[in-house]
Amino acid sequence: MDEISADSNTNYIIVCNLGYSEKLHDEYNVAAEHLDITKKNMLSLFARSFVDNTWPPSRKLALNLCDKKAYVALYHTLQFYVNHGLEITATHRILSFSQAAWLKPLIDHCTTQRMQAKSES
């Protein structure tokens, strides 16, 4: 996973399955996903004591320790996940694309102009 540098001309979007090993369950979780948070399976007993039966489920971006199926991420994001202990258990699709710092000249020009500007006050 460390073969492609961050400034490479080619990057990848990868659809894969990710697995959390048991040793990570006491440490941290890194891969967020959109989940339907329901009273029945996603709230603790303490949190359930604050909501009534009319509480509607809601969709949230949440961290959890569940294995991920068909997880979509950039190559460098997956590099980060693997370096922190997640395992890629299956790869479904890989999309490669060219990337370039095409806005760099404009950003450098604007930065230079901003540094050379004189205050009117």
Secondary-structure topology with pairs:
Elements: E1 10-19, E2 32-37, H1 39-42, H2 45-48, E3 58-63, E4 68-74, H3 75-83, E5 87-98, H4 104-116
Antiparallel strand pairs: 1-4, 1-5, 2-3
Mean pLDDT, as a whole number?
Answer: 89
How helical, in percent, are the residues?
10-25%
How many helices?
Answer: 4
Largest sheet: 3 strands, antiparallel
**β-strand amount:** 25-35%
SSE ordering? EEHHEEHEH
Strands in their spatial order, largest beta sheet: 4-1-5
The CA-CA distance between the termini, in Å, is 53 Å
Radius of gyration: 22 Å
Name the shape in a single word: extended
User: Could you say how many structural domains there are in total?
Assistant: 1
Number of strands: 5
The low-confidence runs, each spanning 5 or more residues with pLDDT under 50, are none
SS-based class: alpha+beta
Question: Care to describe what's here?
Answer:
The chain has 121 residues and is an alpha+beta fold. The chain has one domain (10-116). The protein contains 4 helices and 5 strands; from the N terminus they run ββααββαβα. The protein has helices at 39-42, 45-48, 75-83, 104-116, and strands spanning 10-19, 32-37, 58-63, 68-74, 87-98. The longest helix has 13 residues, at 104-116. The N and C termini lie far apart (53 Å). The mean pLDDT is 89.
